[in-house]
Amino acid sequence: MSNYDNIKFIRITFPAENVAHVELNRPEKLNAFTTEMFANLGLAFDRLSKDSAVRCIVLSGAGDRAFTSGLDVTASSGGPVFSKDSDDDVARRARNIRHHIDELQYSISALERCEKPVIALCHGISFGAAVDIAVASDIRYCVADSRFSIKEVDIGLAADLGTLTRLPKIGVSYSWAKEAAYSARIFSGEEAGRVGFASRVFKSKGEMVEAALETAKVIAAKSPVAVQGTKALLDFSRDRSVEDGLRYTAVWNAAMLQTEDVGKAMMSGLRKTKPTFEKL
Amino acid sequence: MSNYDNIKFIRITFPAENVAHVELNRPEKLNAFTTEMFANLGLAFDRLSKDSAVRCIVLSGAGDRAFTSGLDVTASSGGPVFSKDSDDDVARRARNIRHHIDELQYSISALERCEKPVIALCHGISFGAAVDIAVASDIRYCVADSRFSIKEVDIGLAADLGTLTRLPKIGVSYSWAKEAAYSARIFSGEEAGRVGFASRVFKSKGEMVEAALETAKVIAAKSPVAVQGTKALLDFSRDRSVEDGLRYTAVWNAAMLQTEDVGKAMMSGLRKTKPTFEKL
Amino acid sequence: MSNYDNIKFIRITFPAENVAHVELNRPEKLNAFTTEMFANLGLAFDRLSKDSAVRCIVLSGAGDRAFTSGLDVTASSGGPVFSKDSDDDVARRARNIRHHIDELQYSISALERCEKPVIALCHGISFGAAVDIAVASDIRYCVADSRFSIKEVDIGLAADLGTLTRLPKIGVSYSWAKEAAYSARIFSGEEAGRVGFASRVFKSKGEMVEAALETAKVIAAKSPVAVQGTKALLDFSRDRSVEDGLRYTAVWNAAMLQTEDVGKAMMSGLRKTKPTFEKL
Amino acid sequence: MSNYDNIKFIRITFPAENVAHVELNRPEKLNAFTTEMFANLGLAFDRLSKDSAVRCIVLSGAGDRAFTSGLDVTASSGGPVFSKDSDDDVARRARNIRHHIDELQYSISALERCEKPVIALCHGISFGAAVDIAVASDIRYCVADSRFSIKEVDIGLAADLGTLTRLPKIGVSYSWAKEAAYSARIFSGEEAGRVGFASRVFKSKGEMVEAALETAKVIAAKSPVAVQGTKALLDFSRDRSVEDGLRYTAVWNAAMLQTEDVGKAMMSGLRKTKPTFEKL
Amino acid sequence: MSNYDNIKFIRITFPAENVAHVELNRPEKLNAFTTEMFANLGLAFDRLSKDSAVRCIVLSGAGDRAFTSGLDVTASSGGPVFSKDSDDDVARRARNIRHHIDELQYSISALERCEKPVIALCHGISFGAAVDIAVASDIRYCVADSRFSIKEVDIGLAADLGTLTRLPKIGVSYSWAKEAAYSARIFSGEEAGRVGFASRVFKSKGEMVEAALETAKVIAAKSPVAVQGTKALLDFSRDRSVEDGLRYTAVWNAAMLQTEDVGKAMMSGLRKTKPTFEKL
Amino acid sequence: MSNYDNIKFIRITFPAENVAHVELNRPEKLNAFTTEMFANLGLAFDRLSKDSAVRCIVLSGAGDRAFTSGLDVTASSGGPVFSKDSDDDVARRARNIRHHIDELQYSISALERCEKPVIALCHGISFGAAVDIAVASDIRYCVADSRFSIKEVDIGLAADLGTLTRLPKIGVSYSWAKEAAYSARIFSGEEAGRVGFASRVFKSKGEMVEAALETAKVIAAKSPVAVQGTKALLDFSRDRSVEDGLRYTAVWNAAMLQTEDVGKAMMSGLRKTKPTFEKL
């Protein structure tokens, strides 16, 4: 497992068979993100995506106070976005900023690109990048008293790491989503659950982590051919017409249904035994 | 009405003027689907779509125990998906499987392709294909204690008859939908109602059928030009940009507004009488 | 402000700094729309969009009884849709109708085209065009006893001014939306809130207007670069793939992040002062 | 082969191994199309698509004078388009016409839907539907003195069976295509070849048929897994982004590359022998 | 016709029945564009689009020396693009520039938006905006010795008024188009004809204008229902899938085929007479 | 420049200011591709894309005999595609193949992803991957006697590295392209030029390289802000509607027009001097 050691600010453990637990691990700074930490988050998920021993991933923030407070503005002050290099040509700065955003987006999109389900667990302060990360995850759980904010408007910018792109597509009231995005107001975990942003709400972080690991174990025990195909097909279809979604699905399953997992799963169903599936 | 006789496993009756009631009719097998039964479902809806005496359709499962338990695995064991014909070339099997999926998708998509509104009524066991069928319908009602499951992951495959394609587009929490699809867990009719998967929840099948027929009668009494146009325009727009949706709508209504139904409907509104609309 | 005087049927006031209040102002006719009134609504919003003194807009109906009862059928009887000019060729009438729909759509789409957030406030009768207008707005509030109806089916036509195009995209249960559209049934403000059509529900119009102005003031105090970018990026992404949404966002912010608003907003955040942003 | 007997107006022969030759066979009427003949053309290609003995199809017109002169207006005079049933409501007529166009489009799209390459051979008069059919084919050959016309404008309508849909996508000068479509002017086979509408031009029908059969034999001797995959991937990509095209291609070949045809083809290439591929 | 008087820099005449001739009319400046002239070009075409007496439009440049030399840089020096207002915030300047580009694009897109065919005639110097305008037209003719250049790279910018958007869609070699756009090199009218950028090439401007008026007269004599439908359907399909193109076409013609123009055109065809079509 | 040393099989030189020359450098094997060589090609172009000293890239094959003969089948025999690991589950093999294709596609797409123009120079044998690479380049030149083949069908598969995805979008006759792809027939450089696949044809490799370097120098002397923007906007628009292309263009240039390159370029144009542009 040394492949996951030494990823700074990101701790990865394996609490159950085929289940990984990723923690944003900078609790003394409320898990605020530096550029390096974004890159490492992407790196971690790109590796987990390829690691055939991993079938479901739980993502949480270390410490009691925050999932993440978002961008570490102090640490980012030397980067292309916030530095005011007076000599710089506007077009060249624009290109640098665009590349910088592309990189951060690429890191966060690693959660969506990851072929295994990702369950994001939000507690405490969950500002800015916390929402970008949550909406790039498959499943969102939260603690009732967690405090969310699409904070970007409060620092003079439109969120650009995925929040505005994915919010219209996660099945929450668009009226609610727009008010939250325009006002940068804080909303609680309880509210997040009520509007469907999160699908389960818990009383404490401990209870949430425990429940998430249970869900992850259930998912990890299923055929990985089936689960990873399900993720790929849902996300493909979300962005395209029903017609294109159906066609892609048929092409995908033309190979996937030839897996021996189907036979194993069906036999186990009939015999009431627990199947074991090969790595994928 | 002999056009609807002898469609094996599918019973069609006409409980009210311009209203058809389709029943999955293999109750002794929990209305499980054979390949032939899928084809017949498609056949029935393609005929109903063309039948100008029909303006709204209610779809339910016969018997007390199930809407449908999904694919009849035993009956399907000789088909291209589950047979392991050892001589077979992988590419040729892939092509056969793809064609088989295309056919089943085509049968289920008959509900969406049908030009009249379809109200799906789920009760009891509603597994696998039950969800594919429900999401291809326009309106979903269910009984509080019905038991739903996106069951496919449990038999080693990603659902490929429409569930994964349409789930991201029916206005339910994507976090909730993904957890249901990855875990194949059972969720109740009560939960289906709470998250918006179903729009109404009832205490019993009897109560549900009665209410659905009331709704169907209301819809069937409206101008068929108006109702069928509404379905066509909603589904077209769902898959495209607002701009394309508006353009298509304008082209559609350029002809449809010339119908005499507009005059009739307005006159009836003023006179508080019940209009009669010609066949469509 | 004479730019907004003499827009017949539309009253525009400025109740707070950078906040405009638009009122449908034909209360003696339940704010029913004539063709001229549609054009004026579009005109008003196109002007507000360009007016750098305006940063958030509240839209409501004058009087106690209605947001709007929809199209004024009497006043429209001489137009291309409802007149039955017997000499007319069907294709030529179709073209005239299409142009007429295009124009009305263009007027209503002014709310979406407007670069500033629009909060629609529905009370009393909110029929037909009321829903077209509400779904073209960013945020929807309503009064609990307001009475909504997608009324078009009742006058023999499919809604063509945006309701059917935008309903599948605002994060409400598609099953609920289709039943409402097919049946033209009345639903209350309370129900609108429960399903997410409206994001807040109030006891009275007065209370709602007050709350909306509070929200508008909050939004108007934020950086206009940030808020208007947020609207543009949310709506662009809604209609496209996540991949396209992210790319467009990066190109957009490549320029926008060079604004001095970022520095001002961050400094104010640190100093706990209230920032002042330049016009946009 | 009795599957292809008795398809009225369509003659099907098998001049070489795995090659079918379809002829429009109503030479005494310049191969003009009745509604029945359109249906039969679609029927023939849908059957050929499923017939594993067929790997490439040549399509030509019987007789010396015409590929086809297009729609047989006399025979169509009782159909929904040209009849003027005075009682009829405009919306109901519109629906009937739309369904009629859908059916004719569906018949002609059978050439694109057909999983095997189709080579259309145009000679003599090639008007109206001739162009719809040609652009729905994969490969177009013609005789130098054949006379083409996008004739529809001359009978008061915009071509609706595929010409206007596919012309912008076949790699000819859009300026040339629009002039041809607006003016309904006649252009020769020589011109068709020069602008890339047809890829080969011949002196006589006999020479053209002979050359097309040679091409068809070459294609039919290749792996059908490879050839049919090539058609599917080209047409999918034509309508979508490069990114989507690449993704679909990868999913497709994930199964197809597991075919034994790859091994056979490579071995034959090394040994300079002629491979034999199993049916598909 | 006073509707077209006093459009500065744009001269409009009516050389034949139902044919308009638009001339860029600033020959002393090589027909270079000021911001006002762009707006007037858009205004002219928006009016021509609605003018039922006009059925085909020819567009050329006044004088012997140029179709247009492109943007009048001198006259534009005070505008938002080229002024360097040092106080200005980058984001605010970006928004102003974006709005300015939107406006110019909107003016040029009037040619594509215009419901009637537009034939662009290029002679002499045809730089920058000349190409933007040509590719937004339906049909392109040119003089052999005209000199084209996608000039924008030479003034430090990527062409943003349509050239780069429409070049990949007009059926010319993409390799050729990219070299022309990257290098800003001059290419002759003869070359433009050879690669399909223009569909006809002439020896002199006089000869070209005469031929274009002949083409315009042919087109203007056809049914306007048919011709304008042809333009609408070609351009809609160009940007969408074949499937969507076919569907839109069927909906369009459901109304348009009910025109009396079909009967008139067919009768004239049989009787060899010249039909007269009503205004559209 | 050590960044480009030691990229096995890929030689990179800098024959002129801001111009890179990439050579496929395995001439003793006809520049056939191993998996490593594909990866290195992608690596090279991803680095060149970020190297601000490079503004235009020429790509050719080392030696006299071939641009490239395509995949080195011998060297690939141990990879996931061609190995027949009998224990392997079909779904797991499918996933491995899909990932392998994704990787190779990603390497070749580096040419399109590269922000600078790429000129591909084809000579001698140009089979299989040669065409994938050529169509992913911006500009294609070739030698008259070079021998092209879309060779994949001859080894039992549909081309999956980009040929079938990009061929429908490069402005060549679709009829010609399909015949070439189905038949795997050899076509000459002369034919490639005639149909627009290549935009220039030369007598010898030497002459071609010389001309390409001239073109590259011309492009490299232009503003890199302008040239790279041109590439980005052309490729974005190719895959989307005209409307989306125009909008993206406006957002892009909102920042890019603020570059000082515009002022420099215009000043140089007026003064007839040669401008010097800063790195990008």
Write a brief structural summary:
6 copies of one chain form a homohexamer. Chain A is α/β, with parallel strands linked by helices and 280 residues long. Helix content of chain A is 45%, strand content 15%.
Describe this protein's structure.
By secondary structure, the first copy, chain A, is an alpha/beta fold. The first copy, chain A, has two domains: 10-221, Alpha-Beta Complex (2-enoyl-CoA Hydratase, Chain A, domain 1); 224-271, Lyase 2-enoyl-coa Hydratase, Chain  A, domain 2 (Orthogonal Bundle), CATH 1.10.12.10. Chain A contains eleven helices and ten strands. In chain A, the strands form two sheets. A six-stranded mixed sheet of chain A has the order 1-2-3-5-7-10, with helices on both faces. In chain A, strand 2 (19-24), helix 1 (35-50) and strand 3 (56-61) form a beta-alpha-beta unit. Chain A is globular, with a radius of gyration of 20 Å.
